Amino acid sequence: MQVQKKSLSWYLTPIALAIAVLLPLLAGMRYFILNVVIIMLIFILFSSAWNFLAYSGQASLGHAAFFGIGGYVSTLIARATGFSPFATILAGGCVAAGIGLLLGLTCVRLKEWFLAMVTFGFAVILQVVIASPLAATTGGWDGIGSPRLLPIEIPGYMLYEYYVILAVTVLSIVCIHLILRSRAGLAFAAIRENEVEAQAAGINPVSWKLLAFTVSSFLTGVAGALMVHHITFISPEIFHAETSFWPIIYSIFGGLGTISGPVIGTVILTVIWEVLKGFGLTYERFIVIGLLLIIVVIFLPRGLVSLPEVLRERFARRKG
Amino acid sequence: MALEFDILLQVLFWGLYAGCIYILLATGLNLIFGVMKIVNFAHGELLMLGAYITATVFALSGLNPYAIILLTMIVLGLIGIVIERLCFRPILGTGKLNEIFLSLGLIYVFQNGVALIWGDERQVLNSPYQTVTVPVGAIQLPLDYIIIIIFTVLILCGLYLLLRKTDLGRAIRATSQNRKGAMIVGIDVERMDMICFGIGSGLAAAAGTLWVVSGQVFNPYIGSIPAIKAFSIIILGGLGSIPGAIVGGLLYGIAENGAAYFLGGIWKDSISFLILIIVLIFRPTGLFGESRE
Q1: Do B229 and B161 lie in a common domain?
Q2: Is residue B20 in some structural domain?
Q3: pLDDT greater than 70 at residue B242
Q4: What 3-state DSSP class applies to A16?
């Protein structure tokens, strides 16, 4: 079973990559499709970052905070200094990582619901701080414009933007994969399953949890900065709870704690979302997503990636 | 000086009124948490649904809105039982965070279901006592707020009697103290889950009725923030402790209204989370919570 599963992802990964690379050529230069796919890529990165933190047993309900921090820092630096967004995106990620480390410090002793509440509350507080006391720099509720990743004068800039974001996303997922395959991944899993036993085995939960928090908020900050430079606008609305919920929904739907889960979840739900939008549905879209989430949590707790395995098991049981 | 005292009194009173909504939500969540050890983050959606049902019945029948509270509580209690049976019972005892993810789904379904039926514009219900105020000292207190506080006290007293003086209450308390032990002595714990979820949903519905009756605007999205605050109240007060929920609810109500008055309305929501984070930094299990692990 293990071998078969491995070989499946072994074949699927290059195919998925090839599709991602060739997609703009297939879809042509249609702005609409490229735009949807770019946002999808950013959310794949965002969901993977959230999922990375969840892998260490810390489920955040306020990742919008880091998404927004990345966006604001990158935008403000780019506007003030005129640097290319390519450089400021990293700054956005780094500041998000620093704040993530601080929030992580307050959260190391907290578990489950407590952690969820603190992270959620952090995003709420941050929204107010950005919108009100810092309004002079951040533009308050009205928000501010953000420079494009690539100047609009370049012919086919959307295409380049797509490839840049694809490269960042793929690189990040490879990094996550390498970290989770190393000793760190084992330590995360051990802490997630039983913190006391992990400690007994000589793992220091605090430093590993902080590492997970820092890396996750860095990647989230980068995703946020990419998003903001793509849509060329940022306002405190970015800290809305919904921004925190999407990566969770995508990850749960695809498969919590797996590399491919957030990717598959984001792609499938985005397609469903856009198709429903095509039918002119508004509220119904949310109802469908909500029902799908409930069904997956109840009947497929390990997400869509476990579907082949579950079906195979069920089939085998029926046969035997 | 006298003026400042009056303002303080006013803020306190508003806080008491706002606290009532939180207390009802937090008590319901706590009751459910006690027996099932799960949290329904979509609890606020029940408040919202209660608000819409009250408003609809009021518009159709023209009854005194306070008379509708019982009906709303029963309807929502039944809806709560359905939710428990269909959604929460299957995931009982699985991953510790599954109920959060499940609740996210429920939030989307409820908010948009209501938006689909009633539209998502902001609405207001006009209470018959809208303009009546009661003078207390130098300040004028709206009669609606006083009625709401009385209703909350009555509901809490009813709950207290139910939990303390009846066989059902004893069974609920036994289940929340020791689920396995309760099973051994012959208590149908799944029935207790169902009943507690129903009662908890009913309390949320009562909060919803009081919300609309007091003239607060409502739309399909009003529920999430109060519910999350109610949950942070029970974390603050200790999971499963109903007195903790009452103290925490009052504290939040007063702190919020104080912050809104002294710092500006925008701080209303964040002050409660600020309190929560500061408390949890120093006491990771809440004010009255004991560490079990």
Answers
A1: no
A2: no
A3: yes
A4: helix
The single residue listed with the structure tokens 């105020």 is B133
CA distance A227 to B120: 28
pLDDT over threshold 70, residue A320: no
Q: Is B228 on the interface with A (CB under 8 A)?
A: yes
Q: Which residues of B7-40 are buried (b: 16+ CB within 10 A; e: fewer)?
A: eeebbbbbbbbbbbbbbbbbbbbbbbbbbbebbb
Instruction: Verify that B72 and B124 share a domain, yes or no.
Output: yes
* pLDDT classification of B292: cutoffs 50, 70, 90: very low
Q: What is the pLDDT of residues A56-100, one digit of tens each?
A: 888 888 899 999 999 999 999 988 888 888 889 999 999 999 999
Domain boundary (B172, B199, B222) is at B222
Confirm if B191 and B184 have CB atoms less than 8 A apart.
Answer: no
Question: Cα(B22)–Cα(B251) distance, rounded to whole angstroms?
Answer: 10
pLDDT in tens, B11-57: 888 888 888 888 888 888 888 888 888 888 889 899 999 999 988 88
Entry pTM: 0.88
d(CA A168, CA A225): 12
Tell me what ipTM this predicted complex has: 0.85
**Same domain? B213 vs B229:** no
Which residues partner with B139 through β-bridges? B136
Instruction: Flag whether B3 is in a domain.
Output: no
The answer, for A133 touching chain B at a CB cutoff of 8 Å, is no
Q: Do B258 and B152 share a structural domain?
A: no
* B257/B210 same-domain check: no
B249: containing domain: 223-293
Asked if residues B51 and B211 have their Cβ atoms less than 8 Å apart, the reply is yes
User: Does A22 score more than 60 pLDDT?
Assistant: yes
pLDDT mean over A11-38:
78
Q: Tokens for B291, please give them.
A: 């560490």
> Within this chain, do residues B206 and B234 fall inside the same structural domain, yes or no?
no
| B200 and B236 in a common domain | no
Mutate to test the interface with B, among A61, A114, A242, A249 (most CBs of B within 10 A): A114
Choose the closest CB to B96 out of A112, A124, A283.
A112
**Alpha carbon of residue B227 to chain centroid:** 7
Contact B235 A301 (CB under 8 A): no
For A164-202, how does the pLDDT look when each residue is reduced to its tens digit (9 = 90+)?
899 999 999 999 999 988 888 888 888 888 888 888 888
Q: What would the two tokens of residue A222 be?
A: 């980068």
> For residues B152 and A218, what is the distance between their CA atoms, to the nearest angstrom?
46
* Alpha helices (H) in chain B, listed in sequence order: 2-36, 43-61, 69-83, 89-91, 98-118, 143-165, 167-177, 179-184, 189-213, 224-237, 242-262, 268-282
**Residue B11 falls inside a structural domain:** no
In a domain, B41, yes or no: yes
My answer on whether B243 and B182 are in the same domain is no
**Total residue count of chain B as it appears in this document:** 293
pLDDT band at A6 (very low <50, low <70, confident <90, very high): low
Domain termination site, one of B201, B222, B243: B222
| Residues of chain B contacting A248 with CB distance shorter than 8 Å | 101, 104
Question: How many structural domains is chain B composed of?
Answer: 2
Minimal CA separation from B81 to chain A, in Å: 17
